[in-house]
Amino acid sequence: MARVLGSLVVLAGIAACSHPSPPQPDEVSPMNKIDSSSEAIHATLRVTGSGTPELAVHWQIHNQGQETAHVLHGSRMPYLLLEDERTLVVLHGVNPPDPDIDYNVIEIPTTRALAPGQSLTGTVPLVPLVLRHHFEQERAPRPMSGDLQVVFEVGWTRAPIEEQERHTLNIQAVLDRQIRARSAPVTVTLP
Q1: Which of 64, 125, 156, 183 is the most buried (most CB within 10 A)?
Q2: Residue 181 confidence (pLDDT)
Q3: Is-contact 159 177, C-beta < 8 A?
Q4: What is the pTM of this model?
Q5: Of 181, 38, 61, which is closest to residue 116 (Cα–Cα)?
Q6: What gap in Å lies between CA 155 and CA 27, rounded to an integer?
Q7: Distance (Å, rounded) from C-alpha 83 to C-alpha 108?
Q8: Which residues on adjacent β-strands are paired with residue 184?
Q9: What is the C-alpha to C-alpha distance for residues 188 and 191, in angstroms, rounded to an integer?
């Protein structure tokens, strides 16, 4: 993978806040192809302001490889998912749909090319914590306090998904192409 794609580095920072994860369903099914330990993909997370109402996630995706990476991209990303009761996943990618829900329309995301040496950055406020994933968003903030583990994940592909290709794909095809890099967990204290 390192020879094909190079290295994609994910850096994320969290500025104080309290919050859990995704909308319904509360638990997110495991995602495929998470690659957090190979030489090709490196993900790290840093936390500031734990325990304060200003908690926010500051993230950066950096391609330090020699090949272009294609990062899944959408105006609603990143998403905030509860992986379990005490693990929040900040996901810049796509999660699998709930197999028990019949969705009317499923958005197929495009990708954003990230050339070698380029970065993509952003901030996600966690207060109030409103969980959301690719298919749904909670309407009310999720009340949570105490310690919570937070991880940042980025979904990317080896080849682009372009606007003109979206109508030819279904969500399973996107999930099959997606590779996810995951940071080590960081514990934050929610106010």
Answers
A1: 156
A2: 86
A3: yes
A4: 0.80
A5: 61
A6: 19
A7: 22
A8: none
A9: 10
Q: Which two tokens stand for residue 90?
A: 């900040």
Residue 134 CA to its chain's centroid (Å): 10
Q: Report the alpha-carbon distance of residue 35 to residue 38 in Å, rounded.
A: 6
- Which range of residues forms the domain containing residue 113? 2-190
Question: Got the DSSP string for 104-173?
Answer: S--PPPEEEEE-TT-EEEEEEE-SS---B-SS-B-SSPPP--EEEEEEEEEEEESS---GGGGGG--HHH
What integer pLDDT is reported at residue 21 of this predicted model?
A: 33
Number of domains in the chain: 1
Regions of the chain short of the pLDDT cut 50? 1-7, 12-32, 35-42
Place of tokens 């929610």: 190
At 81 the three-state DSSP class reads strand
The whole-number pLDDT of residue 43 equals 54
Amino acid (one-letter) located at 93:
G
DSSP 28: P
Tokens of 143: 């009340």
